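Tutorial handout. Part one gives the primary structure; part two gives the three-dimensional structure as tokens.
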Amino acid sequence: MLITILYMLYTLAYAVLPFLYKGKRTAMLQFYLRMTWSRSFRKCYALAMLASLMVFHFYHLNVFGNVYELALSSLVCLSLCSHRNTERVFDFLQRKHRLFWAAMATIILLFVPHTLPLGITVATVVFGAVFYPSQTVRKTSSDKLKEYLESPHSLVVDYHKW
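Part two.
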């Protein structure tokens, strides 16, 4: 019973994430600054995303008991173990119109029978790409980063400039 409740809460968490997008509260500004400034924080972010996917796989396996549904999703998770691959996927999704089509594919996968785990995995990667800093912010000079530290509100516009 507890696993079923946790499974439902995990899937409902995706309804909360859009409210954090482009947030200007201090917690989100600190998150943006840390993601911009620290490569190790970005690695930790990718590993936390992967850990949450592994927890979802555990919940799904306990609720439904079908191992075969998890095969494609597990392959996607296996490819995301490398931080370099994860950054490539995020950069690919942050290009023009690709995030939209990935989100549409996610919605389709969520409603097709036996592809729910793959849909949740793709949704997690899409949300991961949305909250990941753009290449322009990651490759800025140290002077610009110091400017972001002085006025963090200017970072929000550049952070999502894909």
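Part three, for discussion. The chain has one domain: 25-159. Residues 39-64 form the longest helix (26 residues).
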